[in-house]
Each structure stands twice: as C-alpha cells, then as structure tokens.
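The material for today's practical consists of a large collection of protein records. An example says more than a description, so a record of this kind follows:
***
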Amino acid sequence: MSSSAPQITPKIVAEHGLSPEEYDRVLKALGREPNLTELGIFSVMWSEHCSYKSSRIHLKKLPTEGPQVICGPGENAGVVDIGDGQAAIFKMESHNHPSYIEPYQGAATGVGGILRDVFTMGARPIANMNALRFGRPDHPKMRHLISGVVRGIGGYGNCVGVPTVGGEVNFHPAYDGNILVNAMTVGVADTDKIFYSAASGIGNPIVYVGSKTGRDGIHGATMASADFGEDSDAKRPTVQVGDPFTEKLLIEACLELMASDAIVAIQDMGAAGLTSSSVEMASKGGVGIQLDMDMVPQRETGMTAYEMMLSESQERMLMVLKPGREAFAEAIFHKWELDFAIIGTVTDTGRMVLVHHGETVCDIPLAPLADDAPLYDRPAASKEEYKAWSGVKPLVDVPESSDITADLVTLMGSPDIASRRWIWEQYDHMVGADTVQRPGGDAAVVRVHGSQKGIAISTDCTPRYCYADPYEGGKQAIAECYRNISAVGATPLAVTNCLNFANPQRPEIMAQFTGCLDGMGDACRALDFPIVSGNVSLYNESKATGGGSAILPTPAIGGIGLIAECEKSARIAFENEGDVIAVIGEGAGHLGQSIWLREILGREEGAPPPVDLATERTLGEAIREMIDWGAVSAVHDISDGGLLVTVAEMALAGKMGATLDAPQANATGHWFGEDQGRYVVTISDLSRFQNFYEGKIPIRYIGKTGGDALRIGDASVALTDLRAAHEGFFPALMDAEL
C-alpha cells in the first residue's frame, strides 16, 4: 500500500467535510489510517449529497409503489409503465450551489447530469423541465444569476436537442444568497430494454466511455453538502464545465450499444464522478471492483488517483460489459468520436482496489462506503416550537381591496405571476417536433413519438406555504402537481422530487423537512401518485454579505401523467366568444399567505390554504372526464393570485376578454383567495354540461367570455393593460426589448 502524502491531520479531515466521529468510523472500517485518496473517497461517499445521511431515515416513509411503477427510488431514475410495452423514465435533481457560484456552467451541467440519469437507463430523453428560485429582483447580484442560469439551461438543452417544455420560477429574499436550480428530464424506453446499475459477473470488464477526465469539479459533492460562507467565489474551481455537443454524441452512442446485448450494468458519472459510479455499481451488485488508474482517459498531465477519482468532469459513463463484447462496444464509441477505455474488472473481494503506476493506492471495503454510511436521526422542533420560531403572524384585520382591477394589474406584473415568456423563448421547446403543449399552460404535453398518446409534465411547489405550515405545504405541492396534470386531461402517474432545505443540524429546519415529507406522503397515498425518484439538497444557506441565512423550505415536485389522445389535451386559453365561465370546487376566500396579501399589503401572514385530499381526487377525476368527453373548451387550475388572476391568464392566452359577475360580499377573498382544489372551465354547450355534472360536484357560474377587457360589474380593465403588466416584468428587469 502506497502512503500518499500528506499525512492525514484533523485539519485535512475537516477540509474533507468529515466530523471527528465520522473519521473514527473510517478508522474502524479500515483498521488503519487512510491515505489521502482513501480519505477523499470516504469524504465524497459520506457527503450529504451522496449518502443522504440526514434524510434517508425519513425518505423511507414516502410511498413508492403502485401498479404502474416498474422501478422506484434507488436507481438513476424512476420508471413507470405507459402501456404498449413502453415506459417513462424520469427524475429531478438539484444543481444549486454550483449555479450560485458560476450560474451558466452550474445550470448547464445540471441539465447535462439529469439527462445522463435518464438515458443511462435506456431511455431517449423527450423533454426537460426546470424549477428555479431567485432572490429579490433588485438584489445587486440577481440579474447576473438569472441571466446566467437561463442561458445555461438553454445553451445545454438546445444544443443537445431535447426540448425544454416548461417549469416554474419564484422570487423571495430568502434565496438572495442561495438560489435554487432544479432540473428534470423525462425519457421513453421499451420496457424490455431498461438498464440498471448493479455490477455482476466476476472478471467482467469495466469500461469508461465519454469525455476525458480533468481537474474540474473536484470536491463538487462535498461543496454541495455545505452552506456558503463569505468565500463562495473561491469555490469556483469545484464547478464542472459541460459540453452539450459531446453529451449528444454520448446519448447516441449509448443508445446504439443498448440496442445490443453487450451491457451488463451502466452508471453515469455524476456527483463524485468515478468514485460514486464505481462504488454504487459494485455495492448494488454485491461484488468488488479493481481499477487501473493509468488506463483512465485524462486531459491533463500528472493527475493523481485522488484527482481522477474525485473529478466531476462531465459527459462520462461507466459500464460493465459482457466478456468478448469490448471490441464491438469500442467501435461504436470511436464512431461517435468518444473515448473508450477498459479500466478495470469486477472482482469477488467486496473491496475497491485502485492501482496507479504499479502501486496499490487504495484498498478499502465497499460496504462502509455505501450501505454502512452514517445515518442521522436529527432532532426536529415540535409544531409548537416551530410555530414560535417561524414568526408567522395570524391573519387579522385584512381590509377589503380599494380597487379590484388595479390590484389585478399589480398582481399580473408581480415577480411570481408575471409572464415567463422572456425565459422560455430562450429555450428550444419544439425540437423533436413532438411538443403538443408549449410553456405557459398548466402542464406541458409531449407526444410519445409515433403514437397518439402524450406525457403531461409539471413542476410545482409553493415555498411560502411550506414555511408557514410545512405539513400543509408538502400536501399542497403534491396536490397542485396532480391538479396541473389533471387540468390538461392526463391521468397523474408518478412523482419525482427535489427536496431543497437549509441546514439539517438546526431543529427548526428538520421540522420543515419532516413536516413537508409527512404532507407529501399523505397526499401521494390519497391521490395514488407515488414518488419513484428524487434528490435531496441540504445546507442551502448563506452567510455571504447581502444573503439571507436560510432558503424557504422548497420540496419541488415534478410529476408526469398519461393522456391516451394528446390532441384532446385541454388548454388554458379562452376559445369561443360567449362561452360560460364556471368555477369547479368551493372557496372560502382564503387570503393567508396569498400573493395578494404580500404584493398589495406587504404582509406575509396567516396559515396557508388547507388541502382536502379527497376533494382533490374527486374533482381531478371529474375534470379529466370533462376533457375526455369534450364538455369544456378551456381549463385552468386556480393557484397563485386566486380566481381573478386565473381568469386573466385565460383571457390573455385566448386574446379574449370576459364579463364576470360581482360577488355580493367578500370581494377580495372571492377574487384573490387561494383556496385549493379548484379549477376554472369554459363551457360551450351549457345544457349538455349541466346534464352531466349539475348537482354532482360544486359548480359556480361566474360569467361569459367575450370582448377586449375583463369587466366586473361597473369596473373593467383592458386586456392591453393586463398584457403590458404581465409581459413587462422580465424584459424590464433584464433590460431586454419587449
């Protein structure tokens, strides 16, 4: 065993993110002191990002099974059956810390990484989504961050040829010092051609393919497992650099090889690079692994085993091949101008052995790296303690709006409701020619190529709800995703998530985490909407100048649904003059934590609106039936901003106004309350609609479509004024042309 300098000191251990107690566990696992390479491997595998040591115990509570589920959590991505011998494979992941430090490359490599998670399993990616959270629009750094992130997502996704079909964006001061960039990819594969990561076959060759290994991204996983101090810019070298053109070649080469019988197991090199991919493949297969580091393709001279194992250079994959298939596989990767190298073999030792320049530089048991990684049941504040800590005031003395239409114009131009056109026009959302519903609706719809069926995709979360009441906020995130997928006519199938929280060593933050997960779990069970993949991102805090201390709890939800005939999918746009406008579902005018309360009165107070899961399911099923039967001409779920914002969005999308009935009382709550479980629909044939649904579900008729303004009693606002406010926010913020 070669003893790599320098000698391991407490300072070096701390720099690797290991606590003294965790280092003691390393000593016991090895029976000796590690060398630097071994310490680095333990460091990244035991990082929060790779080991989920603060969250694993709670993730087990989530529902992950259902008749549609082919593969749940534990693989690169989740897999669900979509019929006809096909499966949807999808996942969402975070790239938060890298995107704050280097927004373009951070966001770009986030897209590249999630694409690899999906095509690693044999799927051709068909759609990308994203969920972004930024700080105050007027924060001095925010314009730079928004611009870089959006360009990075577009630059990578557009070049690799996968459409970016939607997403969500929120703004709040809590993200000033720690933005969130969550990326989601959906792919389609044949159910008999799904690939998994467990290595097997003693003596089978281990093959490295893709790009060469460099020094970029070293300690990326460790960096992503710590909060930001004053030196965030100094962490720039830990951010990876992506190449979407190489990724496109890698997708095609992998899918070509997957059409053969050559692959035993396959894993992308994501966080912790060659270390995590090799450790996960070997530990899942219950085997050992031996690698010859001299054989690893390198783009820099003099690289050490430590650097090669911890590098997070992009566009790389690790495979176990069947013996005798090496030359066949090599020819494919060379045709696509990619590196191919046999770097090791599967062994029966249960150990990871690395040889470099003829010396053994690492020899460690695999079990402690993966299965026996630290697991913490961190203390969480009680509900009463959390309520006292959060400082959310009860909602009292709310005045009525002095001008409903003026408030509507303000809301339509506010950061959380304004049109995202400036963002999504930078994305190619039509490449592949299968996008049925573009960004801007409740959910994107992408046709399964060569068929009539479509996959609906939505990302959802309301962080201000999660902060005010983590349990209700967790429920609402799942319910809104279910609602958005139902609103286009698709049957919700399954969920991926990206659980973004602050420091789990703070009991208040763990109360947020456990509360949100409890709410999510209950909602998934009630709606038959299992969670099949996901990612946990903790330590999203910043001590940097001008930054807040902790993000809002943000359990971003990515859901998919299936629609048998995607051309039947409903849209939000008003379609016909004179259609009746109806609200499906009941509302009590709940203004707690509403956008109206925040934007008009400057108050973030009260409990979030409660979620009735039985009602969500009943009304979701009814809406899907209405769409399938052609009983409604437009559908939009009611969410941020309430009923009047929903109607205004439908009017702008359809370039058609409406005349609305003024309520007898509580006008502010009626128009701007954010009560859950509701939809706005338009109806062309009222008598047919009433024959089906009158008396069976809550229905309230509120007006008719037509004209060039929204009219409420004696008040009105022109669509041109609403559009100017709605479309103006982002171009004005980013100094772009309207």
User: Anything to note?
Assistant: The radius of gyration is 26 Å.
